[in-house]
Design a protein that fits this description.
The longest helix is centred in the C-terminal third of the chain and has 27 residues, at 330-356. The radius of gyration is 22 Å and the shape is globular. It folds into 3 domains: 4-192, inorganic pyrophosphatase (n-terminal core), CATH 3.90.1640; 201-327, no CATH class; 357-469, Diaminopimelate Epimerase, Chain A, domain 1. It contains 18 helices and 15 strands. The protein starts with a helix and ends with a helix. A hairpin with a 2-residue loop joins strand 10 (359-361) and strand 11 (364-368). It is an alpha/beta fold. 46% of the residues are buried. Strands 10-11-12-13-15-14 form a 6-stranded mixed β-sheet. Strands 2-1-3-4-5 form a 5-stranded parallel β-sheet. It has a two-stranded antiparallel sheet with strand order 6-9. The chain has helices at 4-16, 29-44, 59-67, 104-108, 112-120, 142-153, 161-170, 182-192, 212-217, 231-240, 259-275, 301-313, 317-324, 330-356, 378-387, 415-419, 424-434, 455-469, and strands spanning 20-26, 48-54, 72-76, 91-94, 126-127, 197-202, 246-247, 250-251, 283-288, 359-361, 364-368, 397-403, 406-412, 438-441, 445-450. It binds manganese (II) ion (MN). Manganese (II) ion is lined by residues 30, 77, 96, 141-142, 171.
Length: 472
C-alpha cells in the first residue's frame, strides 16, 4: 500500500523541479478539469508547459510522446493502465482508473493491492485511489487526483478546489446521492475557500439554463409519469401550477423561480410521483459555484461539466481548457456556441432516430444509425431517445453507428433497470468479445466497438446475457 499523500508529494517535487512540463490528458470533462488544474498550478509556479488532449492513451500515443523527448510529462485522468510502457519517460501520474494492463481479463485475475505494490517499484510518482484500496469510481476523479498533487505544490490550492468538484461530477461520481470519500474532503475544502456552495435542490439537469418546460421534459432521474418526454404536457403542468413560463421575452428557468414557486412545484411533482407509486428522491445535492454568474452553465457543477464535455466532443480541448481555467470571454462564448450547436445537433440526431425507428427485439431495443449520427454523441442520443418517450424506457436501448475503427455500439439503461439486475458494462464487454470487439463502461451506460457486419450476432449475444441478468 502506498498513500496518495506520499505519492502526491513525490509528484509535486518532480513537477516543481522541472523547467518545462508536457501535460497529457483525457478529453472529457474530468480530464479537461484535471488539465486546467495542472496548468493553473504550473502557471503559479511559473513553469512553462503545454497541454495535449487524447481520446485514449494507447501505445501509438505513447510512442508519439516519446519522440517529442519531453523533459517531464504529467499524465492526468489516465496513465495508470500504461505504467510499464511509460519507462524511459520522466513522468508523474494523477489518475483514478484501475492500475492494470490494458487487457481487462488479465487484470481481473489479479489482486489489485498486490499489483499496486508491484507498481510501487516503478519510479513514477503515481496518485491513484486504487493504490489505497479505495474505489476509483466514486472516491476520487482524475481532476481530484491532480488536485492532491496541487496541495503539495502550493498553499493556496483550495482556491482551485471547485474545478476538482466539477471534474468529479463530470465523471458522475456524485451519483450515489452526493460526493463521498476523498471527493467529499475536497468538496469541504472548496466550501471553506468559498468556491463551492452545497445546496439541496431538485435533481433534474439544467436548473441554470434550461427553460422550465424543457427542464421537466428531459427529467429522467426520476422520470415524471405523463410529463417526461412530452413538451405539451410539461407546459400544461406548469400552467396548472400557476407558474408563468416567460418573463418578458425570455423563458424562465428553475433558478428564476421564487422560493414559493419552487416549493409549490416540488410538492406537485412529489404528489405526481406518489400517485404513480414511485418512491424516488426528487432532490439531490447540487454544487453551486458562487463566484460565477447565476443562470450560466458555469454556475453549477453539472452544467459546467456538460459544457466542457460538449467542447471535448468536438475536439475543442483548448477552448474547454481555457473555460475551466476561468476565461469568461472569447473561449467562454466559443464554448456557449459549441454547446448550442451541440444541442441543435442532438435535436437533428433525435429526428434521425424518429425517422429510422427503434426496433424491438425481445428484452431489448435498438436502432442502427450507420453514418447518420456522429459516433461521438451516439450514447447521448440513445439516452435521449430512451428518456424522451421515443423508445420504451422499460428495456435497455442499443445504438449502432459507423466509426473509424469499426461499428460503435452505445447502450443505455435506467436506474430502475439497474436495480433489477441490468449491468451494461458486463454485457457490452462479453457480447463484444463474442464477436471480436471490445467494450465496457458503467452498469447504466456502456459502449463497445465491434467489427462491421457483426451487429446481428452482437444483438443475439446481448439478448442471452440480458436474460441472465434480468432473471428471465
Ligand atoms: Mn476521469
Amino acid at each position: 500500500m502506498t498513500s496518495m499523500r506520499e505519492q502526491a508529494g513525490r509528484a509535486a517535487e518532480r513537477v516543481l523541479s522541472s523547467k518545462r512540463v508536457l501535460v497529457v490528458t483525457h478529453i472529457d470533462a474530468d480530464g479537461i478539469c484535471a488539465a486546467a488544474l495542472a496548468s493553473s498550478l504550473l502557471d503559479r509556479a511559473k513553469i512553462k508547459h503545454e497541454v495535449t488532449f487524447l481520446k485514449k492513451l494507447d501505445s501509438a500515443a505513447i510512442e508519439t510522446i516519446k519522440t517529442q523527448k519531453p523533459e517531464t510529462v504529467w499524465f492526468t485522468d489516465f496513465g495508470s493502465g500504461a505504467i510499464p510502457e511509460l519507462s524511459g519517460l520522466n513522468a508523474v501520474i494523477a489518475d483514478h482508473h484501475v492500475p492494470a494492463p490494458s487487457n481487462p481479463s488479465a487484470a481481473a485475475r489479479r489482486d489489485l493491492v498486490a499489483l499496486a505494490e508491484a507498481l510501487d517499484g516503478s519510479d513514477i510518482p503515481h496518485v491513484n485511489p486504487h493504490l489505497e484500496g479505495r474505489d476509483g469510481g466514486t472516491d476520487l476523479s482524475g481532476a481530484g487526483a491532480t488536485y492532491l498533487i496541487g496541495k503539495e505544490m502550493t498553499k493556496s490550492s483550495a482556491e482551485l478546489a471547485h474545478i476538482a468538484v466539477v471534474g468529479a461530477v463530470g465523471d458522475l461520481q456524485d451519483r450515489e446521492g452526493g460526493l463521498a470519500g476523498t471527493n467529499r474532503a475536497i468538496l469541504e475544502e472548496a466550501r471553506k475557500a468559498g468556491v463551492i456552495e452545497v445546496v439541496k435542490d431538485i435533481s433534474f439537469f439544467g436548473r441554470e439554463t434550461r427553460p422550465l418546460h424543457k427542464f421537466l421534459q428531459y427529467a429522467s432521474e426520476p422520470r415524471l409519469p405523463g410529463i417526461s418526454g412530452d413538451e405539451d404536457a410539461c407546459i400544461r403542468f406548469l400552467i396548472d401550477a400557476g407558474v408563468r413560463l416567460k418573463e418578458g421575452e425570455s423563458w424562465r428557468r428553475w433558478i428564476d423561480l421564487s422560493r414559493g414557486e419552487r416549493a409549490s412545484l416540488s410538492s406537485r411533482l412529489k404528489g405526481l410521483l406518489e400517485d404513480n407509486g414511485i418512491k424516488a428522491e426528487l432532490e439531490r445535492e447540487v454544487y453551486v459555484l458562487p463566484r460565477e454568474t447565476p443562470g450560466t452553465p458555469v454556475h453549477e457543477a453539472k452544467e459546467f461539466a456538460t459544457m466542457l464535455n460538449s467542447c471535448g466532443r468536438y475536439g475543442k480541448g483548448d477552448v474547454a481548457l481555457r473555460i475551466a481555467k476561468g476565461d469568461r470571454r472569447e473561449s467562454y462564448y466559443a464554448g456557449l456556441d459549441l454547446q448550442d450547436g451541440h444541442r441543435r445537433n442532438l435535436v437533428d440526431f433525435l429526428q434521425v432516430v424518429r425517422d429510422i425507428g427503434v426496433q424491438r427485439r425481445g428484452l431489448l431495443q435498438y436502432f442502427n444509425a450507420d453514418d447518420m449520427i456522429a459516433e461521438t454523441v451516439l450514447g447521448t442520443v440513445a439516452g435521449m431517445a430512451l428518456n424522451s418517450g421515443l423508445a420504451d424506457c422499460g428495456i435497455p436501448i442499443f445504438a449502432f453507428a459507423r466509426a473509424d475503427d469499426g461499428v460503435k455500439v452505445s447502450a443505455r439503461g435506467t436506474r430502475l433497470l439497474v436495480e433489477k439486475g441490468l449491468d451494461l458494462s458486463e454485457l457490452m464487454r462479453l457480447a463484444s468479445e463474442k464477436v471480436g470487439g471490445k467494450g465496457g463502461g458503467h452498469r447504466v451506460a456502456a459502449g463497445a466497438t465491434i467489427p462491421p457486419g457483426t451487429e446481428e450476432a452482437f444483438l443475439g449475444a446481448a439478448e442471452v446475457i440480458l436474460k441472465k441478468q434480468m432473471g428471465g
